[in-house]
Amino acid sequence: MKKAIIGKKVGMAQIFDKDGKVIPVTVIEAGPCPVVQKKTVEKEGYSSVQLGFEDIAERKLSKGEQGHLKKAGVAPKKELREFKLDEADKFEVGDVICADMFAEGDYVDVTGISKGHGYSGVVKRWGQHVQCHTHGVGPVHRSPGSMGANTDPSRVFPGKKLAGHYGVEQVTVSNLLVVKVDADLNLIAVCGAVPGPKGGIVTIKSTVKVHKAKNTVKTVSTNPQKKSARG
Q1: Which of 40, 47, 140, 227 gives 88 a disulfide partner, CB atoms 3.0 to 4.6 angstroms apart?
Q2: CA separation (Å) from 113 to 129, 197, 201?
Q3: In sequence order, which residues have a C-beta less than 8 Å from that of residue 111 and are 6 or more positions away?
Q4: Three-state secondary structure along the chain?
Q5: 119/168 Cα distance (integer angstroms)
Q6: C-alpha torsion angle, residues 185, 191, 195, 201 (rounded to 10)
Q7: Residue 162 to residue 204: CA distance in whole angstroms
Q8: Half-sphere exposure of 71 (CA within 13 A, CB side)
Q9: pTM score, two decimals?
């Protein structure tokens, strides 16, 4: 992992590029994130940094959390996340990481908690079809219908796609392009949608996907039957 930061989803907007093409973006308030703890290979067996985000009243934290933050000399923070950065050894406790850690053109993975939809049926939760609106269906056309179980096993096996709690799960959207970075306001605009509602906490990390450089060199064929060889 090269770079990472904690942020808060502000909402969606539109940005126009130099060609006048509209780009749908999600605006994220990223940082400032102070370094609360630093872990090293000598002591913990690996190197990482723990970042804090969003101020909170001290009375809302436990005694352990208060002592942990006071030891680092950092104001009370609502969120604490640990990241294994490539250059974790260069950071010290008290350093502040801001949105300018990322630049336009970077590709990132955004992780957040998806919106909650409460107790939902199979049509909404799993996208199943409704029953045919024929005579006799009555008011149950959105019910799942028969499960297929007989006297043996006389039950429904676990994992069946049925009604239940929908949403409030950790979701990661990969390979999003950073369109714009505002270092003064600590805002990052990424192309596309990210999980969670407005005000939801998200983490932004360098994408794990590999981006290969495009080959822009044009090759000329020696085959006279091809257009490139005929000039």
Answers
A1: 47
A2: 27, 8, 8
A3: 170, 171, 172, 173, 195, 202, 203, 205
A4: CCCEEEEEEEEEEEEECCCCCEEEEEEEEECCEEEEEEECCCCCCCCEEEEEEEECCHHHCCHHHHHHHHHHCCCCEEEEEEECCCCHHHCCCCCEECHHHCCCCCEEEEEEECCEEEEECHHHHHCCCCCCCCCCCCCCCCCCCCCCCCCCCCCCCCCCCCCEEEECCEEEEEEEEEEEEECCCCEEEEECCCCCCCCCEEEEEECCCCCCCCCCCCCCCCCCCCCCCCC
A5: 11
A6: -20
A7: 33
A8: 9
A9: 0.79
pLDDT digits (tens, 9 = 90+) for 75-123: 899 999 999 888 777 888 888 889 988 999 899 999 999 999 999 999 9
Asked whether the bond before 139 is cis by omega within 30 degrees of 0, the reply is no
CA–CA distance, 28 with 46 (Å, rounded to integer): 30
The 33-39 sheet, strands edge to edge? 77-83, 48-55, 33-39, 96-97
Q: Rounded to whole angstroms, how far apart are CA atoms 189 and 169?
A: 23
